[in-house]
Amino acid sequence: MSILPVRYRLPYALLLPTALVIAAVILYPFLYNFWISLSNMSLYHVRDAHLIGFDNYGKIFLESELYTVLAKTIAWTGINVFFHVVIGVGVALLLNQQVRGRGIFRALLILPWAMPQYIVALTWRGMFNYQYGAINLILERFGIDPVPWLSHETGAFAAATITNIWLGFPFMMIIALGGLQSIPDELYEAASIDGASAWQKLRRVTIPMLKPIMVPAISLGTIWTFNNLNVIWLVTRGGEPADQTHILVTYVYKAAFSYYRYGYAAAFSVMIFLVLLGFILWYMKTTRVLAEAR
């Protein structure tokens, strides 16, 4: 017998549509992708694909390029998420003050996040153009020689990173701003009475109160950045120059839709899923955000 009151009991028939939708859009594609990862499916074996076991997974670890791409992916994710959080929280702290035109600034600062990624990526690619891009024109005004951003690995990777930082910090800003507005003013008043400085208030009051809100946001930001195909692909034209700016998801995308290695790409995507799942479980356990939310 259920221990829930009658008003909280939900007939199982009402859960069936939700279960069917979840199975159709999440469970089935995941299982089908896993099956493909165990097969030899490619451009030449679409209709006659058959299971070959874990051969595709073995090929992943035998490729020397994997570890270079993985290192770039970790650097890409770490740099972007760090600046997303630092800039987002910093701007939120400024917007949380009583300043004139605060609503206008909020609306303007949310625009990068609200705009479609592909439009922003192509716009920034034009801004990084060597001859006519706005970035080099600004540098020339300060007496700095134009930089061939998209002609070498380091410049192209930096261009994509700058673009993604501009795109991503508004999300962290919105989350942090909502958290700041939920902190009781009494805590800051008590800290002021105790003689706390602005830095001590930030460290002892603001950051601990924001932590339960920011940890899930950082987890989401990490997943989105780790899997961000659009910016790298569009800003650097599919990993150019010479396929040196790939992260894992663009590497998989090229394997699937340029080389048509569907089984290999599916196995790679499963590995990415496991890496992200392991990271999120470790991160949530380390930060103990779930324990604090109880």
Description:
The protein has about 290 residues and is an all-alpha fold. It has a single domain, classed as MetI-like fold (Orthogonal Bundle). It has 14 helices and no strands. The longest helix is centred in the N-terminal third of the chain and has 31 residues, at about 65-95.
Q: Assign the CATH architecture.
A: Orthogonal Bundle
Count of DSSP H/I helices: 14
Percent helix, as a range, is: over 70%
Whole-number mean pLDDT = 86
> At the third CATH level, what is the topology name?
MetI-like fold
Order of helices and strands: HHHHHHHHHHHHHH
Unreliable sequence segments: none
Count every beta strand, where a strand is a DSSP E run of 2 or more residues. 0
Through-space gap between termini: 26 Å
Q: What is the number of independent domains?
A: 1
Structural class: mainly alpha
**What is the CATH class?**
Mainly Alpha
CATH homologous superfamily label:
MetI-like
Strand content: under 5%
Please outline the major beta sheet. Answer: none
Rounded to the nearest angstrom, the radius of gyration is 24 Å
- The shape is globular
